[in-house]
Amino acid sequence: MFNFLHHFHPQAVLISVGPINIYWYGIFIVFGILAAMTVTFYLARKYQLKNERIFDLIFWLIIIGLIGARIYDVLLQLPYYLDYPNQIWKVWEGGLSIHGGIIAGLIFITFFAKRHKLSFWQLTAVLAPGLAFGQAIGRWGNYFNQELFGQPTTGRWGIPIDIINRPAEYINSAYFHPTFLYESLGCLAIGIFLLILNKQATNREKINKQFFIWTTALYMILYSILRLALEFIKINPTPIWLGLRWPQIISLITIIIFVPILFLKKHADQK
Questions:
Q1: pLDDT at 204
Q2: Beta strand 240-241 with 244-245: parallel, antiparallel or unpaired?
Q3: Residue 43 is part of which domain span?
Q4: Is 214 inside a domain boundary?
Q5: What's the Cα-to-Cα distance from 84 to each of 80, 96, 167, 236, rounded to whole Å?
Q6: In the chain, how many domains are there?
């Protein structure tokens, strides 16, 4: 189905106009944000949340999420950025960590919910499906940047990586696992699943807080499982601790935190 990726050599720049370059990475980030906004506004109407309040939330989440995603990535690769500090600002070339964006976003939503007397769990539940769809689209930016790919593969779905972008130990390998595609499809499945849950929920006469908690927890757990699995075949540099890549550690911590929340939800329903 994706054999065309095997023969297509992606380029980071979509178009150049004089000294100005328009990057595919930025294009996919923008389309990902628009998709997330569309789904979020759709669900917000279902739950009778004010559009202007959700717009304010999304506006600040975009800014704070991008800042958090960049800071997180810089900290993970601090030695490199200390040697090349001018690279810190070049976000259009990649280097946005979804974990950093999620952490920054959750912190902001906590304060936003308290300030406007809204439910934290309802806001996160409304945002989660759209976030999954946004990730599914945004990951294609990694493909055009030729970054965050997996180990070498002889499969027909393998993607070509230019020599300059290959790790030294894989310099003689031409095709690599398209982990961006695996994650994109996984996030798409998560988004559809969460939308189905919300569709079923809006058909009920009353939706309780536990449903919103459950929806948020499901997103956090499912995405963490997906990321945990994919990191086993990724080869990009990242800190290693106890034999695990740093994103795997964060994913495990997330799973440990949110699985009990699912249990509490189930227990509450049985009372």
A1: 62
A2: antiparallel
A3: 4-196
A4: no
A5: 6, 17, 19, 18
A6: 1
What is the DSSP code string of 187-216? HHHHHHHHHHHHHHHHTSS---HHHHHHHH
Structure tokens at 100: 């950093």
pLDDT score for 4: 77
Report the chain's terminal Cα–Cα distance, integer Å. 48
In a domain, 210, yes or no: no
Intervals of the chain under pLDDT 70 = 1, 202-207, 265-271
Of 100, 106, 108, 93, the C-alpha closest to 72 is: 100
Residue 78's pLDDT is what?
87
Burial of 108 (C-beta count, 10 Å sphere; 0-12/13-18/19+): middle
Q: What is the 3-state secondary structure (H, E, C) of 75-141?
A: HHCHHHHHHCHHHHHCHHHCCCCHHHHHHHHHHHHHHHHHHCCCCHHHHHHHHHHHHHHHHHHHCHH
State phi, psi for 159 to the nearest 5 degrees.
Answer: -105, 140
What single-letter amino acid sits at 202?
A: T
pLDDT in the model for residue 271: 41
Tokens of 188: 């798409």
Average pLDDT taken over every residue of the chain: 90
**Tell me: the pLDDT tens digits for 190-214?**
999 999 988 877 666 566 778 899 9
Taking the model in full, what pTM does it have?
A: 0.90
